[in-house]
């Protein structure tokens, strides 16, 4: 089992040709399921998953035999208020044996989540487009120098033109699925396949709910919600039979020709893991299912809408060409999208945009469009006063007779320069048999694409307060979660004082039972309540959940950073790449520094222009047209950091059941005044536990006193966490206020730019007026550009930031 999981983990990795929701299914969910499968396997086959209370006459290895037998042959659940059935058939009907299969089922669920991705990788090759190679090359293109970047764009442009044009000319076989023509000749094979894969993701995640319900034999569909309802109403959901902690087991022994039947009571330690695992998985899959359903609806609508495709292309063409909104230009774009790019070409451009950014995508679309206009002599169909190409046919080193052709305007007999005409020597060789690249052609490009450079280390696109939240706090919480888990599930978290008549494994049974079924706290100067309900009210069971809660708190601290990374990426700004270049150029190499400043300057101008365009269809929100989109996203992320750390206090108080809000301060006051705060009941060291044992057709109740060693760790952990989060909350609140001021008050941006321009022009003595600086920010930088330069100053140097501002001003 474990070698299989180890091999599976090594072969699972993220890829280029998908989006975040796809990766949420085949990558993150698969890894989570495999990790949980390994965790449960370790507990089942390495630890001690079951402990049984056996009769007093059992000796030697009899107890171990009973425990092993009951684990492999299953047990049955019966509440204590019901008699044990006499009929063996009725006992068999109540048997539960799923806990043996949990690792296997988790591994199967992981495989089911990964299968649509396997199908996508297997079938996308049938489109005749090497999607993986195209996106690998596009993704690394922005890291290259100018000449190499331009050559990469030429190769991409040439490859897309040849492949898509040959698809349009090819009259291959087609398949009709859901009234859609899925064929390479119609140019929508890849698009329909991608939507079909997303549909499989949705079917899979819906099927997972039925699989879990059937596997756990639950009586209601919305199992996770019902569990939360039980907890909110004070019902003991572990007693429902879904994850029983205490079960019964029957086994027969042959002795001197006779068969003796024994019934023992067992504690299933493994079910303490299972209940938490499946509760988490239910809500995780609910989240994944909701995201997948919304994502599928979005992709189906955008794929079926020709207006969406045309508006996407027009939004990029307006940035680099004199493209307007006249009827003739719209018709020209319509012909370009419908007869040249086709749906599959637009899908590839969307992939490139998601993984390489707007800048490369815009340059690639402009090059494809220019070739299409020149190739089909369509420039005169638009406004003759405008230059839709802005370049001569030979500006990019391309042959004017090579590129897109209009499938309606030109026949496919080789005349008028159709695709049957000879290609350039450097063009990819296309096999006419299967419309795919020949096996001998590496990746299908004219020249071998450059090797993918090693993944750069992370570069800060935030400030220290952000890292205090998502990095240091998350790391601390995860370390503490691992420490407590090791103590709870590997060490001995509880030790009980049992009656003298307890023998054999009875003591271990009592300790395991008391740990998983909770204990209750009663001060020594108070009598033990005779009413079982009063004892139940005083129960404390949070210590079982401490590792889970710490891990959840760590996730909550990291979520705002995920929001920031996700939104900044999909806004089109490639912060990591730019900051990496800036950090590498902050050394003593003057030539590299000058080149980097040119690249970054061009990138900032282009990115700001693409977002402030009045026709931009992707960024009409969050202040994009005003040049404040990145600022607003960053401030929103900081607001989420602040709200999160405040919510953490509410979670801790609710989880620990404290009577006062400023718990950490009250603890310190108790210590100063000499009060034993450890005896308050929040972190009791000595507790009591009641448990019942069925023996000789009767139920015997026992009360034992236990020492919770684990609470010695918990009290120190939560005392430290309270003051740590108090410090983080102060820093985050002040930092949020500071960024609100500098983001929404133009004076701060003006002073920042003025300071660097004064440094740059100190030797020349040039003095710039405030009006000039304001105009420079308004027309060129915008608030988002200033924010980018602030990041560059933080991660590289203020010298590089000064040179960059001076270069952009000049």
Automatic annotation (TrEMBL):
It comes from the Eukaryota. GO terms for biological process: monoatomic ion transmembrane transport. Structural component of the gap junctions. It is a multi-pass membrane protein. The chain crosses the membrane at residues 26-42, 96-115, 196-216, 277-300, 470-486, 540-559, 639-663, 717-739. Belongs to the pannexin family. This is Innexin. One of its GO terms (molecular function) is gap junction channel activity. The keyword Membrane applies. Residues 396-411 have a biased composition (Basic and acidic residues). One of its GO terms (cellular component) is plasma membrane. Residues 382-427, 439-461 are annotated as: Disordered. It is found in: Cell junction, Gap junction; Cell membrane. Its main location: other. The keyword Zinc does not apply. Keywords: Cell junction, Cell membrane, Gap junction, Ion channel, Ion transport, Membrane, Transmembrane, Transmembrane helix, Transport. PROSITE patterns: PANNEXIN.
């Amino acid at each position: 089992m474990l070698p299989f999981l180890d091999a599976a983990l090594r072969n699972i990795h993220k890829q280029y040709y998908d989006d975040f929701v796809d990766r949420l299914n085949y990558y993150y969910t698969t890894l989570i399921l495999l990790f949980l499968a390994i965790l449960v396997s370790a507990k089942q086959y390495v630890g001690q998953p079951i402990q049984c209370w056996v009769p007093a006459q059992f000796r030697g290895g009899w107890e171990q035999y009973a425990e092993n037998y009951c684990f492999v042959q299953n047990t049955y659940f019966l509440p204590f208020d019901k008699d044990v059935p006499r009929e063996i058939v009725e006992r068999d009907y109540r048997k539960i044996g799923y806990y043996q299969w949990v690792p296997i089922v988790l591994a199967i669920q992981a495989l089911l989540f990964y299968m649509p991705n396997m199908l996508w990788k297997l079938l996308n090759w049938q489109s005749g487009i090497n999607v993986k190679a195209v996106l690998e090359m596009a993704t690394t293109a922005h890291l290259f120098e100018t000449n190499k970047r331009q050559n990469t764009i030429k190769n991409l442009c040439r490859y897309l033109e040849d492949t898509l044009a040959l698809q349009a000319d090819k009259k291959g076989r087609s398949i009709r699925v859901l009234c859609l023509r899925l064929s390479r000749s119609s140019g929508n094979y890849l698009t329909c396949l991608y939507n079909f894969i997303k549909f499989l993701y949705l079917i899979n995640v819906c099927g997972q709910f039925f699989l879990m319900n059937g596997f756990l034999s639950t009586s209601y569909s919305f199992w996770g919600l019902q569990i939360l309802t039980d907890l909110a109403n004070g019902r003991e959901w572990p007693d429902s039979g879904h994850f029983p902690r205490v079960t019964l087991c029957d086994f027969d022994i042959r002795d001197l020709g006779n068969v003796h039947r024994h019934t023992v009571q067992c504690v299933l330690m493994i079910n303490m893991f299972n209940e938490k695992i499946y509760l988490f998985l239910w809500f995780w899959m609910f989240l994944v299912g909701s995201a997948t359903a919304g994502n599928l609806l979005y992709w189906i609508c955008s794929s079926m809408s020709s207006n969406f495709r045309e508006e996407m292309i027009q939004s990029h063409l307006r940035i680099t060409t004199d493209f307007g909104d006249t009827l003739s230009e719209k018709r020209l774009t319509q012909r370009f999208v419908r007869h040249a790019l086709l749906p599959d070409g637009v899908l590839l451009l969307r992939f490139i945009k998601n993984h390489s950014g707007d800048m490369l995508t815009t340059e690639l679309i402009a090059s494809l469009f220019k070739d299409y206009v020149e190739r089909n002599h369509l420039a005169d169909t638009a406004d003759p006063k405008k230059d839709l190409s802005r370049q001569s046919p030979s500006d990019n080193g391309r042959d004017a007779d090579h590129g897109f052709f209009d499938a309606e305007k030109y026949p496919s007999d080789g005349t008028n320069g159709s695709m049957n005409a000879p290609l350039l020597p450097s063009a990819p060789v296309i096999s006419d048999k299967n419309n795919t690249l020949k096996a001998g052609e590496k990746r299908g490009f004219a020249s071998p694409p450059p090797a993918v450079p090693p993944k750069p280390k992370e570069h800060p696109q935030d400030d220290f307060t952000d890292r205090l939240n998502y990095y240091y706090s998350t790391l601390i919480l995860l370390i503490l979660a691992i420490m407590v888990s090791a103590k709870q599930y590997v060490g001995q978290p509880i030790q009980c004082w049992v009656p003298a008549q307890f023998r054999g494994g009875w003591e271990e049974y009592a300790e395991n039972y008391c740990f998983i079924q909770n204990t209750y706290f009663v001060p020594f100067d108070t009598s033990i309540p005779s009413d079982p309900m009063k004892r139940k009210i005083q129960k404390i069971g949070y210590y079982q959940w401490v590792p889970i809660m710490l891990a959840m708190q760590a996730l909550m601290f990291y979520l705002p950073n995920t929001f920031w990374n996700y939104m900044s990426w999909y806004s089109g700004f490639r912060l990591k790449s730019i900051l990496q270049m800036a950090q590498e150029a902050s050394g003593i190499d003057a030539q590299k520094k000058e080149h980097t400043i040119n690249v970054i300057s061009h990138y900032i101008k282009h990115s700001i222009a693409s977002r402030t365009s009045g026709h931009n269809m992707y960024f009409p929100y969050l202040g994009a047209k005003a040049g404040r989109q990145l600022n607003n996203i960053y401030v929103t992320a900081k607001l989420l950091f602040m709200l999160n750390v405040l919510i953490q206090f509410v979670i801790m108080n609710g989880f620990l059941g404290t009577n006062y809000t400023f718990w950490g301060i009250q603890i310190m006051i108790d210590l100063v005044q000499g009060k034993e705060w450890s005896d308050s009941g929040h972190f009791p060291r000595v507790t009591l536990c009641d448990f019942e044992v069925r023996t000789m057709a009767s139920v015997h109740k026992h009360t034992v006193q236990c020492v919770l060693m684990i609470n010695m760790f918990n009290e120190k952990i939560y005392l430290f966490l309270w003051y740590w989060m108090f410090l983080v909350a102060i820093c985050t609140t002040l930092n949020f206020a500071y960024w609100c001021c500098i983001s929404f008050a133009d004076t701060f941006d003006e002073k920042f730019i003025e300071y660097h321009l004064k440094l740059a022009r100190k030797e020349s003595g040039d003095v710039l007026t405030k009006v000039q600086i304001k105009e420079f920010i308004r027309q060129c930088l915008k608030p988002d550009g200033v924010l980018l330069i602030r990041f560059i100053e933080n991660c590289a140097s203020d010298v590089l930031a000064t040179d960059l501002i001076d270069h952009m001003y000049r």
